[in-house]
Design a protein that fits this description.
Distance between the termini: 45 Å
Number of helices: 6
Helix content: 40-55%
Strand content: 15-25%
Oligomer: single chain
Order of helices and strands: EHEHEHEHEHEEH
Strand order of the largest sheet: 2-1-3-4-5
Structural class: alpha/beta
Radius of gyration: 21 Å
Largest sheet: 5 strands, parallel
Shape: elongated
Length: about 170
C-alpha cells in the first residue's frame, strides 16, 4: 500500500518542523507545509494529499476552520485539527466543519498516530460507501421496471424514472 501523504498547516515554523519530523517518523510522507489558510487550500487542490493536519490560528484573514471546510467540501480531503484551542465553542466549530479529529497541542506521537490512522480509515470507509451508493443508484435508475424502495416506516427512499411514471409521484415528493 502507498504511503499516505499529509499536508501540514501550521504558521509556527518550529512547530511545523517538529510536526513534520513526527509525521515522517510515524511512516507517513509530508506532502507540504502551509502557513496560511489560502496556501493550504491552494496546496490541497494542487497536491491532493490524503489528509490535512490543521492548526486553527493561522497567518492571514482566514482561520484553519474555514480552510478545513473548503478542503473537505471541494476536494474531499479529511482534516484533523491540531490546536491549542479546546474550548467548547472551538470544538463545536471544528466538529461542525466535518473534521475527523481534534487534538490539543502539545500532542504526543502516539495520539497523533491514532488520530491519523482513524481519520484515514474512516475516510476510506466513507469513500467506499459513497462509491457503492452511487453505483447502486445508477444501477437502480437504469432498470426499465418501476423500482420503489421504502424504509421500515413505509417512507419512500428511492424511486426510479419508471417508478415515477407508473405512480405519478416525483422523486422530490
Amino acid at each position: 500500500m502507498a504511503v499516505s501523504r499529509i499536508l501540514i498547516v501550521e504558521d509556527n515554523q518550529l512547530v511545523a518542523a517538529d510536526l513534520s519530523e513526527t509525521v515522517i517518523s510515524l511512516g507517513y510522507e509530508v506532502a507540504a507545509v502551509a502557513e496560511s489558510a489560502d496556501r493550504a487550500t491552494h496546496l490541497a487542490q494542487e497536491l491532493q494529499p490524503d489528509l490535512a493536519l490543521m492548526d486553527i490560528t493561522l497567518e492571514g484573514d482566514r482561520d484553519g476552520i474555514g480552510a478545513a471546510e473548503e478542503i473537505r467540501s471541494r476536494w474531499r480531503i479529511p482534516v484533523v485539527f491540531l490546536t491549542a484551542h479546546s474550548d467548547v465553542k472551538t470544538v463545536a466549530r471544528t466538529t461542525a466543519s466535518g473534521a475527523f479529529g481534534h487534538l490539543t497541542k502539545p500532542v504526543r506521537a502516539e495520539e497523533l498516530q491514532a488520530a491519523i490512522s482513524i481519520a484515514l480509515s474512516q475516510h476510506r470507509a466513507a469513500r467506499e460507501l459513497l462509491r457503492e451508493k452511487t453505483w447502486l443508484n445508477t444501477l437502480l435508475s437504469s432498470i426499465h421496471e418501476g423500482v420503489i424502495a421504502a424504509d421500515e416506516r413505509g417512507c419512500v427512499i428511492f424511486l426510479n424514472a419508471e417508478g415515477e411514471r407508473v405512480t405519478g409521484w416525483t422523486v422530490a415528493e
